[in-house]
């Protein structure tokens, strides 16, 4: 079978090998190998086969390596194809089918593709002329010299003429990397290259350490704050009467009787009593006026003489604090004993009440006294007493 007849059979068997040059850019599709002209059906391909005019030998074949080297090495890729100038727009081409083999030792790894290099616009209604090139990508995995087959292309001109253009072959010389056996030395595998650690690499770990340290500090702070608070709730608190007597004991003596200090003196006495009333009777005495306190206290079974005495103390304190009243030394001297008397007697009432509930006799009235064993109501107000003691048995 002649070369021309071979490509005529290819053309009649499938129109997919027929490319049409059209427009400024020719059809280009590496996935399919060629882009077939949709206007050329199989019937047109048979017509082209019947009208083939002859063979034209041309020079224009090229073999260009894709790698920029002085020589072609194993597995290097090259473009093998042809270039053709002055192709009329609408010209169709049928390329060789290399799917079943190309050249022994050489493989085609990319099918035909056609590119338009330059377009020359036609004059006076004539079609445009284009310079094109078409190529396949080849490679070789064996060292040697190979003669590549010539490229024979069937051309179908727009006016219907068909001819075969044959481009001459090229020689491909594939080399391996030369090794100088005289100076070549075997070397062991090199160890891993250690690059210096940069700050950007350390930054995530540093941030993690800082965050962890912050969390530890936060946990320690929370434990110290709320842990101590919770532990403090279990600490036994002093009874209200002991707290009140301790504060009143600190106000004994005449050091605060001076007119400019009387406000602080009476504030200390009444504040100690207010806190005691809050704890003993559940009255919000810290936010109440004197009238409101004694209005609520009137229903708490306080003896009348004690009620009147302590009420007079609160009213005198209000005069001193708000009306700039200056109390006499006798009034100042009776302030702390009256307050102590109120605390001890009301507490003694609570003790007697508990004893009676348990079937025990009432305790003597002198069970709770100020320092020195004297009754706090009759003790010397100007004397400096020692710490107060609670003789009630712990239950």
Describe the structure concisely.
This protein has 395 residues and is of the alpha+beta class.
Polypeptide structure, described:
The chain has helices spanning 3-13, 42-50, 199-232, 240-249, 262-281, 290-297, 304-322, 329-357, and strands at residues 18-20, 52-58, 61-65, 72-73, 77-88, 92-94, 107-120, 129-139, 144-147, 151-156, 162-167, 171-175. It has 395 residues and is α+β, with helices and mostly antiparallel strands. The chain folds into 2 domains: 3-175, no CATH class; 240-373, no CATH class. The protein has a 5-stranded mixed beta sheet with strand order 1-6-10-11-2. It has a 4-stranded antiparallel beta sheet with strand order 3-5-8-7, with no helix packed on it. A 3-stranded mixed beta sheet has the order 4-12-9, with no helix packed on it. Helix 4 (240-249) runs antiparallel to helix 5, helix 5 runs parallel beside helix 8 (329-357) and helix 7 crosses helix 8 (329-357). The longest helix has 34 residues, at 199-232. Residues 1-17, 22-52 and 365-395 have low confidence and may be disordered.
């Amino acid at each position: 079978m002649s070369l021309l007849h071979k490509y005529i059979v290819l053309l009649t068997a499938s129109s997919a090998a027929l490319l049409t040059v059209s427009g400024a850019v020719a059809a280009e599709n590496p996935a399919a190998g060629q882009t077939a002209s949709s206007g050329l059906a199989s019937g047109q391909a048979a017509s082209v086969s019947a009208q083939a005019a002859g063979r034209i030998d041309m020079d224009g074949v090229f073999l260009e390596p894709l790698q920029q080297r002085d020589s072609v090495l194993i597995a290097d890729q090259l473009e093998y194809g042809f270039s053709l100038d002055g192709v009329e727009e609408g010209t169709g081409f049928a390329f060789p089918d290399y799917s079943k083999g190309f050249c022994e030792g050489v493989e085609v790894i990319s099918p035909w593709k056609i590119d338009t290099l330059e377009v020359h616009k036609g004059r006076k209604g004539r079609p445009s002329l284009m310079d094109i090139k078409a190529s396949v990508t080849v490679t070789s995995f064996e060292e040697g010299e190979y003669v590549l087959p010539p490229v024979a292309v069937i051309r179908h001109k727009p006016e219907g003429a068909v001819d075969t253009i044959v481009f001459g072959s090229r020689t491909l010389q594939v080399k391996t990397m030369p090794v100088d056996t005289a100076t070549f030395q075997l070397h062991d595998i090199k160890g891993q290259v250690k690059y210096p650690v940069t700050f950007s690499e350390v930054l995530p770990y540093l941030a993690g350490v800082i965050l962890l340290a912050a969390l530890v500090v936060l946990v320690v702070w929370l434990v110290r704050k709320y842990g101590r608070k919770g532990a403090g709730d279990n600490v036994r608190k002093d009874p209200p009467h002991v707290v009140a007597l301790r504060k009143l004991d600190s106000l004994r003596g005449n050091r605060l009787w001076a007119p400019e200090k009387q406000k602080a003196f009476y504030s200390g006495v009444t504040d100690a009593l207010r806190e005691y009333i809050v704890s003993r009777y559940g009255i919000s005495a810290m936010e109440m006026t004197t009238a409101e306190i004694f209005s609520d206290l009137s229903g708490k079974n306080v003896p009348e003489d004690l009620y009147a005495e302590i009420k007079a103390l609160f009213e005198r304190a209000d005069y001193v604090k708000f009306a700039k009243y200056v109390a006499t030394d006798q009034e100042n001297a009776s302030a702390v004993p009256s307050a102590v008397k109120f605390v001890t007697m009301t507490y003694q009432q609570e003790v007697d009440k508990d004893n009676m509930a348990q079937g025990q006799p009432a305790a003597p009235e002198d069970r709770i006294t100020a320092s020195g064993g004297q009754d706090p109501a009759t003790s010397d107000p100007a004397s400096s007493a020692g710490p107060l003691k609670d003789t009630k048995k712990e239950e």
